[in-house]
Amino acid sequence: MLHRLTLPGRVTTTTAECFALGTDASPYSLTPHTVVSPVSEAEVQATLAAAAVHRVPVTFRAAGTSLSGQASTDAALIKISHAEPAWKELVIAPDGGSVRLGPAVIGGAANAALAPLGRKIGPDPSSIDSAMIGGIVANNSSGMCCGVASNAYHTIRSARIILADGTLLDTGSDASRAAFLTSHAKLAQGLVDLAREVQADTALAARIASKFSIKCTTGYSLNALVDADPNDPVDIVLKLMVGSEGTLGFISSVELATVVEHPHSATAFVTFDATAAAAEATQALRALGDRAPDAVELMDAVSLASAAHSSDIASVATLPNLDLNPRAAALLLEVKAPTAGDLEAACAALAAEPLFEPALGDKLGFAQSAAEAKIMWDARKGIIPIVGARRPPGTSTIIEDVAVPVSALAPLTDDLSALFASLGYPDACIVGHALEGNLHLIFNQGFATPADVDAFRTLLDRMAELVAVKYDGSLKAEHGTGRNMAPYVEMEWGPRATSLMWRIKELFDPAGLLNPGVILSHDAEIHVKHLKATPSVDPVVDACIECGFCESNCPSRNTALTPRQRIALARKLSTLEDGSAAHAEASALLDSAAIDLCAADGMCQAKCPVSINTGEYMVALRAARLASGSPWASKLALIVADNFGVATAAGRGMLAVAHAAASLVGSASLTTVSAGLNTISGSLIPIWHEALPSPPLPVSWRGAQSQPAGAASRRRVAYFPTCVSRVLGPSQRGELCVVDAVQRLFDEHLVDSYELVIPDNVDGLCCGCAFESKGLSSATDAASARLGDALAALDVDAVVVDASPCVETMRRLGAGGVPVYDVVEYLDLAARSGHFPALSELAPQPAAEPVVLHIPCSASKVAGLERVYQSVAARLWGERGVVGSDVACCGMAGDRGLRFPELRASALASLTARAPARGVSCSRTCEVGLEAETGAPWHHVVVALAERLCK
């Protein structure tokens, strides 16, 4: 229905794709019948209006890191895209005191933009580098440091809100406010009446204030009825939208007040012999008031043991009797200060507190190193997926989220540990933001049998009684009520307050179409229905809990499935009957939107707390598909690897022919023709783009070897010109190609210290990278071995390589036992050792506009290489003359970005919008893709060096 009425081309109704797009981090699995991807407020309004007419329930989704089922639906899902400019608004007030953000802005990106001003947004969930602002506000997320005072509720200033009937309310606009009061007089008056009613009931008002003095996201933000001006219904609307989980409307833009982010910080890891002792220490820390640490994170013995498998925290490894003491625990402390002196004083004052003496026996030591702090925080922030990765096969990881006054934290931890033990959950662990009395309870649960579901229900019942009744705490502190705690809202709040919530829902959404079953539900069993199955599909990805941390790094996220969606679809496929229509549909989607369009760059692994490389899994599926459907492909690839010189010559020849054809028929016509051939060939033939350069002359024709001068003291170095540098020439005629640039730098500046040699028959050599990502393992091994033999025969001290993908591949697969260096890395080493004074003494010459430096995904995997390129670029153009691309992967993936240009466009959408004037990188294929999408010239950094330093 919706696809006919609203957004043709941006509506998905196929079951397999809807299932994949509907995946989130919760233990629930519902498949939407429609997924709508609007690109503007007007399209959201139209969709909601159509849904209202046809009585179609609607759920909103941003990043989908949701843990409580608030982003799951079997109706219509409105999914906000990573790429659409309308949802990526980021406007900082001149004084940095506030920031206006679109719902698809990732929290970490907002903080990165605010960092130069010494500010950040208040909410700081552990998922901040993945979670989007829409979800952060809709769930009233908090996190490590923000507590209650700096959460979204207390920092929101204004918002643009689309109501259930499609009406847009801009709370920051006087005209919009006035129009709302006229068009929605019943809603406005109803809210005024509720506020006056609550404020007149002093006992109820005090109860609400007490509940929100600690973290609480159970139910609606009833504090809006206490805090807001009872005569200002728009203010009440604004505050109620925070934490409403898409049940009252859609937030299309929000203005948040920012908070100070001090530049200096220190971290300490303190161990205790009992969880209760750590909790008691937290109470003492909170009593310090302004002298308390900014963050106090608690980790119990089970979480510490899990973290020890994934980190190198010294304190974890040395924790006394960790395996023998199930009550052991630790606190992770962070202190922040405006100056180094203030930080030193704050740390010294904390170290002198007597509360640490039983735990340490000596002085409390704070680490000020960013590297040490990162290790500790990565272990804490990643504990949920880390624990999930160790779960028994076929089970799901559940994360409950509770809060109590800090005075009750110690007895609560004891009671929760006893509860888990009594119900048979030996792997359950307790972590949390202890300074706020906020605990996350992580346990693994199967749902394969009715007995499993009953066990889950029993645990939730007992936990709810313990937290809500015994300790009068919050059943959901910061993760949102969702469908997970909807049946327990009245247990926590009581009938009077719960009836207020139902009245609020009725005022905003009388038809009950916005996210039904979330926050409030008449179904007492909703929390144990539609539970997610997690069958094993492959050891590489079985540890995935579908948290979505990986998605922001995925180059195909705007055009195909993301890593977690690929995994979820593969799991679903394994449960479908082979030969069925559902199986065929899911299999076809996995082929086209996962296996084909995965860049296999492994950047998902960089964001995954348990280092899952979904690209590795996709490559394995490519290999399996080739083996079953194209058994000749592996043999053909092996022939190509054995005759790579012919392939290189053919590549240069085809590129030359293509350029000749483009000059005759026009570049646009050639693009059209090649696109047709691409379709006919099943995407095997690349699509022409005018950014593709002419081929350079073959290396051997230029007499490319730098001949020895006979000086015995010179270091003998092999230069391996990669196949991409041998096939792809410079962007413009008259410019240096990469191979020429390397040789001229060595010949003019390093000839006294280095003897540069090039392997014989270099055109016939390949590192194997060209075959590996295609799943052609035999050809990969053959090419790598042949190159290794050629390099070993040269008797050299090192080999330098001019493309970062090949550097990464050669270091991983081996290169005849010869140390492998990126060429710029080696030149930088030469400068630091005094052999390349022209580089070490280079005076920066800033360009008219900042030069964009793109670090390819392969370079980011080579230790230290990113730092080297940043350093050398700064020597060329100055620190302020270089900016990063902020792109994890360009989407070229060898030739894949030419065969599937939508992958390249998806990966570079954010950079294209910035319209850079000039860019540099360290891989010729990446540079071609970057030039194709941005229209700006891109070069290898070594070319820029040669242009500056050579005659």
TrEMBL record:
Keyword list, A-Z: FAD, Flavoprotein, Mitochondrion, Oxidoreductase, Transit peptide
Classification via InterPro entries:
4Fe4S_Fe-S-bd, 4Fe4S_Fe_S_CS, FAD-bd_oxidored_4_C, FAD-bd_PCMH, FAD-bd_PCMH-like_sf, FAD-bd_PCMH_sub1, FAD-bd_PCMH_sub2, FAD-linked_Oxase-like_C
Q: Which Pfam families has this protein been placed in?
A: FAD-oxidase_C (PF02913), FAD_binding_4 (PF01565), Fer4_8 (PF13183)
List its EC numbers: 1.1.2.4
Q: Which cofactor does it need?
A: FAD
Family, similarity comment: Belongs to the FAD-binding oxidoreductase/transferase type 4 family.
Q: What class of enzyme is it?
A: oxidoreductase
Q: Give GO cellular component annotations, separated by semicolons.
A: mitochondrion
Q: Name one GO biological process term.
A: lactate catabolic process
| Species | Thecamonas trahens ATCC 50062
Ribonucleoprotein as UniProt keyword: no
Protein name, as recorded: D-lactate dehydrogenase (cytochrome)
